[in-house]
Write a structure and sequence with these properties.
The complex is a heterodimer of chains A (625) and B (407). In chain A, 27% of the residues lie in helices and 32% in strands. With 625 residues, chain A is an alpha+beta fold. Chain A folds into five domains: 178 residues, Rossmann fold (3-Layer(aba) Sandwich); 85 residues, Translation factors (Elongation Factor Tu (Ef-tu), domain 3, Beta Barrel); 72 residues, Elongation Factor G (Translational Gtpase), domain 3 (Alpha-Beta Plaits, 2-Layer Sandwich); 89 residues, Alpha-Beta Plaits; 119 residues, Alpha-Beta Plaits (2-Layer Sandwich). In chain A, the strands form seven sheets. In chain A, strands 11-10-16-7-8-15-12-13 form an eight-stranded antiparallel β-sheet. A six-stranded mixed β-sheet of chain A has the order 2-3-1-4-5-6, sandwiched between helices. In chain A, helix 7 crosses helix 8, helix 9 packs antiparallel against helix 10 and helix 11 crosses helix 14. The termini of chain A are far apart. A nine-stranded mixed β-sheet of chain B has the order 7-8-6-5-4-3-2-1-9, with helices on both faces. In chain B, helix 1 runs parallel beside helix 2, helix 3 packs parallel to helix 5 and helix 11 runs antiparallel to helix 12. Chain B is globular. The two termini of chain B are 27 Å apart. Classes of the chains: A alpha+beta (625), B alpha/beta (407).
């Protein structure tokens, strides 16, 4: 390993190149990043561990980078040592804002595309965002070593998208290392050096903030103007708080404390704050004794888009769930939660998430890292409900949907971009129409693939859109969406009643035209999932007091009548013990025993609609009209 | 104290598609485990078992019942069965008036066969009739005809054996009317005991695979419930009353051997895969196999079962070793569960005093009241007796009673 000459805090801006890598999940970003660390010599081959940058288990398993990191990488070209700031960005649609801050910390971006798959919608949307930020784009095709790579085809596609020559698209293989050296050279040659005012009052952009169990909150910053010194007080301009920095430093690839950070440099600061809410992404840090006048642009609070209830299967775990959420919150400013009581599911929390993936990740971390057995209700969005009497309700839980005469309901809308091979255009259009999508424009990004633009209620996307999109396009389509205002809509709350009792966990706010479909689907699902019991169980769907669908679980007449002679006794007893253990996983709704699996399966949205269901929906709707 | 003997004969002429019992159609399974010398091997096991009992301080009274099950015990020569009874008598003694039963396939017996059994001390024979309807018998892979059942039943009755027949309901393709015909046909045989079993579909059997592949319709719980009700009504009307969920008899003709299982008596078991049971009773100190525990108080009995595969079973016997596959110590919890689960199968019911004895508590009167109101048990008394509905929903009843006992 060689010691870099350019010392942190004393590196001339002209020798700095800050870049990020824009890539879709699984397109090999981490492997390429690993190669860069290895080639630069800051990580020895021996220390090299796969996917160095991805620190959390879930990220490694899913191949998703949730939290960005920033590594200072030395690279020498033509005898001159340069300092590269490599900023790792999250790859998923839920983390758009975080991506935008990471992009704002860079002058250039490596667009990394899997040569076997081509560009995906989320990557495209991040690419557009990078272009909007005036970043220099270096297009790269990865995985060229794979036999299924279609390098020429996808190079043309990329060249068409960013308006470069096909020969400008670099070919690399993170796996073999081929092309990575050229990539580093091109980063130095093509990406502009930072151009902040080194003598102005300090301004540093927070582009990430991570909870570390040993160090507390580690805040990643990009110095734009001036310099910060390790002994001087700093100020968070958005929050108006002042801290003594405990440590200032750079990552290379471990944390290295420095005396200062100068204009153009990327590094970290540790202030001793306890949660990421005290050190927010997008905020500007300045020096307290020489304050900047204006913060850097673009700061905003993360806003939850999707809500769901999380309930421990065993209600005794409620305090554990609270502790676990408190801990996750340290690292996740976007996660919000408040206690919620459900008649069906007991005590839990109503949680707000940036999107579905964010929700899945939180649920998975709760179960994996905190060993909690959870039920999650179906995700929903926030509605603004205005009543005839003029009262206004902000509803993020269907069970709180107000009773009485509703004047107007407003729901959030998103702009959705879908990239699909052209043979699925019809299927995607049909799916979007089914989900109340309004088609905007459509353009061919290559001879094979199109990008379609829709405006769609967010509620439609969080319900079952993504799974259906994947299944109708054989997995080829990709989706990106972002907030795009709101609209009023004809929505109703559908309740599900089991033996006449409303089960709040199954209530949903849906478009009036879809109410029958939801009611029929849900009652049918529950009929299949709830085991027969000693009495008949009616399962109904209702809008207000009006029943729109009904199924009946017939009374159980016989359970097991097996023989029980000498050799059967042990087996029969073990079966009883198993049933008893199974009962512990039952929720009592009135007199009805409902297995946890029924909640989980009924709330999952992967249902394919069979013919019987379709007939029943039609019949229910007809009866109404 | 009661001591019974069960002997498992693991041979059949052919395997029926629904059967998952431990039985083989080959006549020679190696290591001396063949149909022709099975009796010899089984007698060897009796001697080894007696030695084990002595070593473990288990002294049993004379045998009160012997039951030959299978497989098809009547695939052995009648003389073999008789020799086994005689050997058991030599080793343990047999009570006067003991009940000695064999199961039989209507294909495998004739008049001289049943006469030999009767002369050798047998008192009962239980025929696997299953159905009186040819297409149902065909689905069950049974080779007998309704006619030879009545012929063999008559033979057995003529030599003085008590006769029971077994029926199966719920066979794929069996209509309610088919079932009624089977029940009526069985009753017309003028037997004093009938067992009727819901077909239980085991996934590893040929029939299990046929149902899974959709070649046969799956048995339906509601259909089986209706058939049970029909059987119970018709049997009762002819004086055969239920005394256990799947068994009906005229008073005094109940199978004493089978009642022993539900009353938790001791029984020794001989033959591949057979299960034995020794209850912990006063003055007995079970130890060694299965009972191994620091805390002898925690042992409420042991169960042991023989190696199922005849060749390995025979190999053990040839080594002069007890051919047990495994043993199980019944702890307090298991004892409570077994007491409740077995007692609630019986017309004589589960005495509250028996629950008190094993669990040190009894269900609250309010719980019993509710079970009665729901039609699962008879009017509460000192004994919990399941109703017809309580028999059909016996599992639910068992777990409700267990839930009401703190254990």
């Amino acid at each position: 390993m060689s010691e870099p000459n350019n010392q942190a805090g004393f590196t001339d801006q002209s020798l700095i190149r800050n870049f990020c890598i824009i890539a879709h999940i699984d397109h090999g970003k981490s492997t390429v990043a690993d190669r860069i660390l290895q080639l630069s010599g800051i990580v020895s081959d021996r220390e090299m561990r796969d996917r160095f940058l991805d620190r959390m288990d879930i990220e490694q398993e899913r191949g998703i980078t949730i939290k960005s990191q920033a590594v200072r990488v030395p690279w020498t070209l033509d005898g001159q040592e340069y300092t590269l700031g490599m900023i790792d960005t999250p790859g998923h649609v839920d983390f758009t804002y975080e991506v935008s801050r990471a992009l704002a910390a860079c002058e250039g971006a490596v667009l990394l595309v899997d040569a076997t798959q081509g560009i995906e919608a989320q990557t495209l949307s991040n690419l557009y965002m990078a272009i909007e930020h005036d970043l220099t784009i270096i297009p790269v095709l990865n995985k060229i070593d794979l036999p299924s790579a279609e390098t020429e085809k996808h190079a043309e596609e990329i060249a068409g998208l960013i308006g470069c020559d096909v020969s400008d698209v670099l070919r690399v293989s993170g796996k073999t290392g081929e092309g990575v050296e050229q990539l580093l050279n091109r980063i130095v040659e093509e990406i502009p050096a930072p151009s902040g005012d080194a003598s102005a009052p300090a301004r540093a952009l927070i582009f990430d903030s991570v909870y570390d169990s040993y160090r507390g909150i580690v805040t990643y910053i990009r110095m734009v103007d001036g310099e910060l010194k390790s002994r001087e007080k700093i100020r968070m301009m958005g929050l108006s708080t002042v801290h003594d920095p405990i440590e200032l430093g750079v990552i290379s690839p471990d944390m290295v404390p420095t005396k200062a950070l100068g204009a153009g440099e990327v590094g970290y600061v540790i202030t001793g704050v306890k949660d990421v809410g005290q050190s927010k992404v997008g905020d500007t840090i300045t020096a307290e004794n020489r304050r900047a006048d204006e913060p850097l642009p673009g700061y905003r609070d993360p806003k939850p888009m999707v809500y769901a209830g999380l309930f421990p299967v065993d209600n005794a775990q409620f305090p554990d769930l609270r502790d676990a959420l408190d801990k996750l919150k340290l690292n996740d400013a976007a996660l919000i939660y408040e206690p919620e009581t459900s008649v069906a599911l007991g005590f839990g929390f109503r949680c707000g998430f940036l999107g579905l993936l964010h929700m899945e990740i939180v649920a998975e971390r709760l179960s994996r890292e905190f060993d909690l057995d959870l039920i999650s209700t179906a995700p929903n969005v926030t509605y603004d409900v205005t009543m005839e009497d003029g009262s206004l309700h902000h509803v993020n839980n269907p069970s709180e949907f107000p009773e009485g005469k509703v004047k107007r309901i407003v729901e959030p809308v998103v702009a959705a971009d879908i990239i699909t091979p052209k043979e699925f255009i019809g299927a995607v259009m049909e799916l979007c129409q089914d989900h109340r999508g309004q088609m905007g424009t459509m353009e061919y990004i290559s001879t094979e693939r199109v990008e379609m633009h829709y405006t769609m209620p967010l509620a439609e996307i969080v319900f079952d859109f993504f799974d259906q999109l994947k299944s109708r396009t054989k997995g080829y389509a990709s989706l990106d969406y972002h907030e795009s205002g709101e609209q009023s809509a004809d929505l109703v709350k559908v309740d599900i009643l089991i033996q006449g009792e409303k089960v709040d966990a199954f209530s949903a706010v849906v478009h009036r035209d879809k109410a029958y479909a939801y009611g029929v689907m849900m009652t049918k699902k529950l009929r299949e999932l709830i085991p027969r019991q000693q009495f008949e169980i009616p399962i109904q769907a209702a809008i207000g007091s009006r029943i729109i669908a009904r199924e009946t679980i017939r009374a159980l007449r016989k359970d097991v009548l097996a023989k029980c002679y000498g050799g059967d006794i042990t087996r029969k007893r073990k079966l009883l013990e198993k049933q008893k253990a199974g009962k512990k996983r039952m929720k009592m709704l009135g007199r009805v025993e409902v297995p946890q699996e029924a909640f989980i399966a009924a709330l999952s949205t992967d249902d394919s609609t069979d013919r019987d269901t379709k007939d029943k929906i039609r019949a229910a709707a007809k009866k109404e009209n | 104290m009661t001591y019974e003997l069960y002997i498992h004969v693991p041979f059949c002429l052919r395997r029926c598609g629904y059967c998952d019992f431990n039985t083989y159609t080959a006549t020679d399974l190696g290591e001396g485990a063949s149909r022709s010398n099975f009796a010899q091997m089984a007698i060897r096991e009796m001697h080894i078992l007696k030695r084990w009992q002595l070593e473990h301080g288990i002294e049993e009274p004379p045998i009160s019942t012997i039951f030959f099950g299978g497989g098809t015990p009547t695939t052995l020569a009648a003389e073999d069965l008789v020799a086994l009874v005689k050997a058991a008598g030599d080793i343990w003694g047999i009570e006067d008036g003991a009940e000695i039963t064999t199961e039989a396939n209507p294909d495998t017996v004739d008049e001289s066969y049943v006469a030999t059994l009767k002369d050798g001390g047998f008192t009962r024979i239980s025929f696997g009739m299953q159905s009186a309807v040819p297409h149902v018998l065909h689905t069950l892979d049974r080779t007998h005809t309704p006619e030879n059942v009545s012929e063999h039943v008559a033979d057995a009755q003529r030599v003085g054996l008590e006769v029971s027949v077994d029926l199966i309901y719920g066979t794929p393709g069996e209509s309610v009317e088919d079932w009624r015909v089977s029940v009526e046909t069985a009753l017309a045989l003028d037997v004093n005991h009938i067992s009727a079993y819901a077909l239980s579909l085991e996934p590893t059997t040929k029939m299990g695979r046929q149902v899974r592949r959709g070649e046969l319709p799956a048995p339906d719980d509601d259909d089986e419930a209706s058939k049970y009700e029909i059987a119970d009504r018709l049997f009762s009307a002819r004086g055969l009353h239920w005394y256990e969920i799947s068994n009906w008899a005229k008073p005094g003709f109940e199978s004493r051997h089978n009642l022993g299982y539900w009353r938790n008596v001791d029984w020794a078991a001989i033959g591949p895969g057979a299960h034995s049971h020794y209850a912990q009773t006063e003055g007995r100190h079970l130890h060694g196999e299965g009972a191994a525990t620091q805390d002898a108080e925690e042992c409420f009995g042991i169960r042991a079962w023989d190696i199922a595969f005849p060749r390995v079973w025979a190999h053990q016997l040839n080594q002069d070793a007890l051919p047990w596959k495994d043993t199980e110590r019944i702890d307090r919890t298991a004892n409570i569960e077994e007491t409740v689960m077995l007692g609630l199968r019986l017309r004589e019911g589960l005495p509250l005093s028996r629950i008190e004895e094993v669990a040190a508590s009894t269900p609250e009167p309010a719980v019993l009241r509710r079970l009665c109101d729901e039609g699962l048990i008879e009017e509460p008394s000192s004994v919990i007796v399941p109703t017809l509905r309580g028999r059909l929903l016996n599992d639910a009843l068992i777990s409700r009673v267990l839930d009401s006992v703190a254990y």
